[in-house]
Amino acid sequence: MTDQKITLYGAYWCPDCRRSKKFLGEQFVPFKWIDIEQDKEAEQFVLQKNNGKRIIPTIVFEDGSFLVEPTNAELAKKLGLKTEAKKTFYDLIIIGGGPAGLTAAIYASREGADVLLVERSGLGGQAGITVGLDNFPGFPEGISGQEFSERVAQQARRFGVEILQAVDVERLAQENGYHEVYTSDEKHYHSKAILIATGASYRRLDVPGEDDYIGAGIHFCATCDGPFYKGAKEIVVIGGGNSAVEEGLHLTNFAEKVILLARGDKLTASQIAIDKVNEPGSKVEVRYNVSVESFDGQDSKLKSIKMRNKATGEAGELHPAAAFVFIGQQPNTAFTKGYLEADQSGFLLTGHDLKHVGNAEALPFETSLPGIFAAGDARHGSVKQVASAVGEGAAAAISIREFLRRG
């Protein structure tokens, strides 16, 4: 993660500002957000930088340089992210730089495989934005997700893994017996084998107003966006599982009060997390049996949440500074749809869950197409934990070694 100090000048109604905020957040790049419509000095600064023109986003870097309405590619270049590989052919291409992908890269490259890892966001996946990993073996005092991810990425690079960031994979194909990986920047790479370790993303509520205020009051990452609400009177967290409870507790560092809206009549998080919520003096208030019905806003920013108690039918409304949504996950496998077999939710089927054409048995972690493997949260049957993702990455690398050995 870069240590550059960045200030992003924009406005909540500006779609390019939201895109730039999203990009920086995905790359785990810390930045300061200033709404020029709420800060006249900031507005004058933008006018000065742009020869009297009010152009946003204007992004200022620590060295005094700045970019105006940059594309994601321009931002990636400025941040020093590597977006183009040295070659076009590799023994193994790993798609996804979370714990599973990075671990597989370490195992495969250490045994001599030529490995390219492609990641669209910041290295570490969801683990990278986790405040603290308290249940990963070997760290009795815990370790931050960011530090853990940086250590694993450093280890992968030490063994010669080539890593691309801010690069999205659009589709896969086959040509002349090799696998093809096509990226969003109109490049493509060839390999003998592929590992899909793209993880999963948080689901949306799909209620009126949600799409309108994503990035403008509605968020899916407390670590990324929580600091913007320091001093807020009230923040809402939607969900009742581990992520919702743990991120809700984290958000108490910024807001005077966090209201947790759970659909069920109890929380489904770990008992340790629930106990923290119930501690005397906790800043988290839990409301049960709540169904969120819509979001509303003003001046392109979230202002209210309409909800209903499922048990009593009573309607209610909240006016938080922000809402964070943690209601489960969906796999980041859209680029494989129709190409690889998956379950109804899109998680990839592997190993004993399927048979290859001609009833040839798949290797462990191998998908429906020989030579393409899957590990971690994107795989059907995975348990969605950092420690298990690391184990799956190592095991998948061993299966890939066997596949490459067979030639």
Account of the 3D structure:
This protein is of the alpha/beta class. It is built from eleven helices and 21 strands. The protein has helices at about 15-25, 40-50, 70-80, 100-110, 125-130, 145-160, 210-215, 220-225, 240-250, 270-275, 385-405; strands at about 5-10, 30-35, 60, 65-70, 90-95, 115-120, 160-165, 170-175, 180-185, 190-195, 200, 220, 235-240, 260, 285, 290-300, 300-310, 315-320, 320-325, 330, 370-375. Strands 5, 6, 7, 8, 9, 10 and 21 form a seven-stranded mixed β-sheet that branches. Strands 12-19-13-14-15 form a five-stranded parallel β-sheet, covered by helices on one side. Strands 2-1-3-4 form a four-stranded mixed β-sheet, with helices on both faces. A hairpin with a 2-residue loop joins strand 16 (about 290-300) and strand 17 (about 300-310). The chain starts with 5 loop residues before the first strand and ends with a helix.
Low-confidence stretches: none
The strand count comes to 21
Mean pLDDT over the full residue set = 93
Q: How can the largest sheet be summarized?
A: 7 strands, mixed
What helical percentage do the residues reach? 25-40%
Helices, by number, come to 11
General form? globular
- Report the C-alpha radius of gyration, rounded: 22 Å
Cα end-to-end separation: 37 Å
Structural class of the helices, strands and pairings?
A: alpha/beta
**What's the assembly state of these chains?**
single chain
Percent strand: 25-35%
Layout: helices, strands, pairs:
Layout: E1 6-10, H1 15-26, E2 31-35, H2 40-49, E3 58-60, E4 66-68, H3 72-78, E5 89-95, H4 99-110, E6 115-119, H5 125-128, H6 145-158, E7 162-165, E8 169-175, E9 178-183, E10 188-196, E11 200-202, H7 210-213, E12 218-219, H8 222-225, E13 235-238, H9 242-251, E14 258-261, H10 271-277, E15 284-287, E16 290-298, E17 301-309, E18 315-318, E19 322-325, E20 329-331, E21 372-374, H11 386-406
Parallel strand pairs: 1-2, 5-6, 5-10, 6-7, 10-21, 12-19, 13-14, 13-19, 14-15
Antiparallel strand pairs: 1-3, 3-4, 8-9, 9-10, 11-20, 16-17, 17-18
Helix pairs in contact: 4-6, 4-11, 9-10
